[in-house]
Amino acid sequence: MAEENVRVELTIPVPAARVFAVLADPAAHCAIDGTGWVEAAIDPAPLTGAGQVFRIRMYHPNHPDGHYQMANRVEVFAQDRAIGWRPGQENERGELEFGGWTWRYDLTPAGPSETRVRLTYDWSAVPQHIREYIAFPPFAPDHLANSLRHLGELAEPARQG
């Protein structure tokens, strides 16, 4: 794969503000994820700006520990337009270290009650020492399309609370 990112798009029949609200809720990320790796939000407070860190409990059968945590630092936060984060983990000194991949959602109104959502997974900044033991992308490309479908289901008003 020559590109070091994967992008998918989907039009969701709800306004951008509603889509953004779901993405800014770490507790919703388990239901959005198409792989089953995201288990739960450790930090369930809504995302409010760049620099914020939120932690997620994860599980992957090929991870050395099986269960692990990711600390995600919000890199992009443009209310109702874009949100993205850089996943990382705490080292033995409690400092965050990032692997070089990012998740980003760009929202474009597609009418009064529709939003075009573009999800980008980018691994262009992953250093070689990580690429030696993780193949990128570490999931099938349809994972992103599944995630956008899940996001659309969560954002639909009939699905709310």
Description:
The chain is of the alpha+beta class and 161 residues long. It is built from 4 helices and 8 strands, in the order βααβββββββαα. It has helices at residues 16-23, 29-32, 128-131, 142-155, and strands spanning 5-12, 38-41, 53-59, 67-78, 82-90, 96-98, 102-109, 115-122. Strands 1, 2, 3, 4, 5, 6, 7 and 8 form an 8-stranded antiparallel beta sheet that branches. The longest helix has 14 residues, at 142-155. It is globular.
Features:
161 residues, alpha+beta, 8-stranded antiparallel β-sheet, 4 helices, globular
**Which residues sit in consecutive blocks of at least 5 with pLDDT less than 50?**
none
- In terms of structural class, how would the helical and strand content be classed? alpha+beta
Q: Indicate the percent of residues in helices.
A: 10-25%
Counting DSSP H or I runs of 4 or more residues, the number of helices is 4
Distance linking N and C termini = 41 Å
| Principal-axes shape call | globular
- Beta-strand fraction estimate: 35-45%
Largest sheet: 8 strands, antiparallel
Structural Rg:
15 Å
Order of helices and strands: EHHEEEEEEEHH
Q: What is the overall pLDDT average?
A: 91
Beta-strand segment tally: 8
List the helices and strands and how they pair.
Elements (H helix, E strand, L loop, with lengths): L4 E8 L3 H8 L5 H4 L5 E4 L11 E7 L7 E12 L3 E9 L5 E3 L3 E8 L5 E8 L5 H4 L10 H14 L6
Briefly characterize the structure:
The protein is an alpha+beta fold and 161 residues long.
